[in-house]
Design a protein that fits this description.
It is a single chain. The protein is mainly beta. It has a single domain, classed as L,D-transpeptidase catalytic domain-like (Beta Barrel), CATH 2.40.440. The protein is built from 2 helices and 10 strands. Strands 3-2-1-10-4-7-8-9 form an 8-stranded mixed beta sheet, with helices on one face. A two-stranded antiparallel ribbon has the order 5-6. The longest helix has 10 residues, at 152-161. It is globular. The N and C termini lie close together (9 Å).
Length: 175
């Protein structure tokens, strides 16, 4: 993986997302202008590409699919499908320790063969998403199982502005 240069960046008019894992922050860009900043939570196991690692992958990706556009705001998902449940404190107490995927899903696909695409490093086959997290779960610190978690209100904003095909660059602050 290399540090992007200006030539690697999406066109001046394009929307793209940058996820800085060292800062636990997602920035939505329009070309080279930052438009919005959001706190996130990435993998508690750090960064890495390997399947089963629980780590957040690095490099260039794109939004492969946007799932849940017509679901309730606090819909619960399992296997990328709504369960029919709507998140509540009572539901959380009935299922302690559950890894909640709430609201919407932006499913990522790697763009770098051998690094985050193909074989045992394939981001899409690892089911790495941007998704909502309950208000009781922290953001701004690494606490996920490899996905990128956001507060529901923030996720809904990102979901509206980052349709399938949107480039996403995940890095650890050092390039």
């Amino acid at each position: 993986m290399h540090t992007p240069t200006l030539g690697d960046l999406p066109p001046l008019h394009a929307v793209w997302a940058e996820i800085d894992i060292s800062r636990q922050q997602l920035v939505l860009w329009h070309g080279r202008t930052p438009k919005a900043h959001f706190s996130v939570s990435t993998g508690v196991a750090g960064t890495g590409q390997r399947e089963g690692s629980g780590q957040t992958p690095l490099g260039w990706h794109y939004v492969r699919a946007a799932i849940g556009a017509n679901a309730p705001r606090e819909a619960v998902f399992r296997g990328r499908r709504p369960t029919g449940e709507v998140y509540s404190e009572a539901l959380a107490q009935a299922h302690p320790g559950r890894d909640w995927i709430l609201g919407r899903i932006l499913w990522l696909c790697g763009l770098e063969p051998g690094h985050n695409r193909g074989g045992r490093v394939d981001t899409q086959r690892r089911y790495i998403y941007l998704h909502g997290t309950p208000p009781s779960e922290p953001v701004g610190v690494a606490e996920s199982h490899g996905c990128v978690r956001l507060r529901l209100d923030d996720l809904l904003k990102v979901f509206e502005q980052a349709p399938p095909g949107t480039p996403v660059w995940l890095h650890s602050g050092d390039g």
